[in-house]
Amino acid sequence: MISKTLHLFNSLGRELREFTPIDPDHVRVYSCGPTVYNYAHIGNLRAYVFVDVLRRTLAWKGYDVTHVINITDVGHLTSDADEGDDKMEAAATRDQKSVWDIAAHYTLAFKNDLQRLNILPPSLWSKATDHIQEMIAFAKVLERNGTTYMLEDGLYFDSSKVPEYGRLGLLNIEGQEAGKRVAYGGKKNLSDFAVWRKSPTNVKRLMEWQSPWGTGAPGWHLECSVMAAKYLGKTFDIHTGGIDHRSVHHCNEIAQNQGYSQCSHPGANWWMHNEFLVLRAESGDEKMSKSSGNFLTLQSLVDRGIHPLVYRLFLLGASYRSSIEFSWEALAGTRAHLRRMLLRIARIKENADNETLQLAKAVTHDAHFQSGGPFTFLIERLMNEATEEERNYILAVDQALSNDLHTPEVLVIMGKILDDPDLTPQAVIRLVALVDLVLGTKLLDTDPDALSVRPLSASISEEAIIQKIAERTEARALRDFSRADQIRGELLAAGVEIKDTTERTDWEWRVTPHES
Ligand code: AMP
Ligand code: ZN
């Protein structure tokens, strides 16, 4: 039996703590979702691969999980500092569509990206615009509780009214002085934020609603407090998001939760944050930013020959708490790693018995994540059939996961399993099935050749490649090595890499960082 012991890093208090859910068998998780005014970039997607591993680990531990992701389809401002244009409205102008069409289009694209990355869909998607009245009701309570004040442009939260504002972000707010309202743009404290934003007079916004504070739209932190409490309760287990949310958005969510409930409980017991995926620019690290337009999407990786599961594996190669530097070379390396694993598994499958293959298939089927029950049953069944050696592998994986979801270690163990000459083919298949439940890399269902994705820029057909390789084989047989090298060079120029094995010549598309 897999133990329930699990240590997760809590940003609140900055400590690795043993995880104990409120309900002994059921964990409730809320993840801040995307703002749907553009495609998600591959940095955004890291936040959901991280929470997917968290969810799968909780299921591995035998918990049922209720997971909510919100869709932010209300326009926030283009800057975190309460200024700039409305992002949804700016996108509507840019794409010449209605704000509602913009939201629908990018929501669909986002869900499609998650599916391509084999990320389990949440138990519930909750859309901000479906909850405007509830946000107004929540803000009324904040007002009644004396935690807000009115300014010309809307209703503001008074961050001095809650205990330890900014504890999550370790914000140093000592420099703030009451009475400096001019410097703070009229706000009482620098860290005060809008709960309701009034539309400017004489301006008709594309998205606006009536409220006791004037026609306008909710401030960008309100929706998460409201939807998390509605679907998961006023206190729930885990709240996730990217590291940027630790110092603003989540501090403000906590303040609102405290202002609403009039107690010091932050809402969620665990606040977990993934580090960023960074692009190295000549000037140093640069974060990817949707609003600056400087970003790569999952589709742009696919267009350059990277299969989505390669990107998933690339992310799992680091702890979610380390920042990862993006590079095409590293992705090409990960693709080679995944291909090696898949080829090895394909060979092992040929020697495994049918019953094991069937059982493994049943285990990897996503439906078993809907509830902890059958998942636990299957783990137990596999554990019961396991030899001591297999059990040791499972325990090692469990230990790595229990140490704050340490997936790099799980990948090392997977490598050992695939290379262990003492394991039977049945044992390897059982172990791969089980461990891949958490990794979610579809190791048993992916054809190694499927990893080689045709880049958009490819200028040669698959038939022509095969013909060239045949020509080269013939040239080699005639010991015409200069012709053979020439063909290799031609293929390389067309974006194709070839590799000679003892039996045959394999080929794959080269990862092409730049369209040629
Ligand atoms: P957004 O759509 O901007 O609200 O972001 C969606 C999620 O992606 C949030 O949890 C962000 O914190 C997270 N995020 C944004 N940029 C990055 C990045 N470069 N690396 C990892 N996570 C990110
Ligand atoms: Zn949020």
TrEMBL record:
GO MF, any single term: cysteine-tRNA ligase activity
Span(s) of short sequence motif 'HIGH' region: 34-44
Catalytic activity line of the entry: tRNA(Cys) + L-cysteine + ATP = L-cysteinyl-tRNA(Cys) + AMP + diphosphate
Binding-site list for ATP: K290
Required cofactor names: Zn(2+)
NCBIfam families listed in its UniProt record: cysS
Family per similarity comment: Belongs to the class-I aminoacyl-tRNA synthetase family.
Name this protein carries in UniProt: Cysteine--tRNA ligase
Taxonomy of the source species: Bacteria, Pseudomonadati, Pseudomonadota, Alphaproteobacteria, Rhodospirillales
